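Section 5.1 Outputs to date
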Amino acid sequence: MSSASFKYIARKAVYASGLLIKRSVGKVSKVSYKGRDNILTNVDKASERLAIGIIKKAFPRHSILSEESRPIDSTSPYKWVIDPIDGTTNFAHSFPFFCVSIALEKNGESILGIVYDPMRDETFMAEKGKGATLNGRRIHVSKVKSLRTSFLATGFSYGITRKDRNIVYFRKLLVATQAIRRAGSAALDLCYVACGRFDGFWEMNLHPWDSAAGHLIVGEAGGTVTRFDGRDYSHYDRDIIATNGYIHSDMVRVLSRRKSG
């Protein structure tokens, strides 16, 4: 199996799912709830079936981990990690910030990541050790060196309460930076760090499909990705800091503190 065949199938899957999603904006026929605020639409399931079908036809022995289905496990060292719509709440409200995210693991490590934004027709892609691209052109993180002049992004967990720890972090970083955005798609936020639109991103309580592709894309674009405590990040970890590298230590200092204030 070659990297070219992996990339071809990854592209085929995200583009097929992305076209379905784009055609479905404003036409959601069914919404259900997986929690107080965590919604699921009929399009999430259709997008997932489409992506999994394409991948399984090409690589029937590979494992698959996808947000809306039970895992498909095998003895293969390869596993596809799929988010059929990252930003479902945005999609359900026709707010145009959502994407399809697909990563390929080998022995638990992402070796290929692709994130497709169907509304802007933007494809972010990275292969381990080969750099990152946006629509085929190389991308790199920003060169902003000061936290004070940085432009950050974050996200909040479903079922947020007034005691949510990220409210404290948000308040601290809001007054320490130029601005913060909360747009609602971790995968796209990570890609925006990779191409320099954001200087940094942090979030808590993520799932593997939220960051499996995006964190590889940031790393291959020259960025730094760690846990809140500064240790190496795996997309099976729940908290993430992704930055251009220059502001990383400052963000770790803020986010690794356990006392509120």
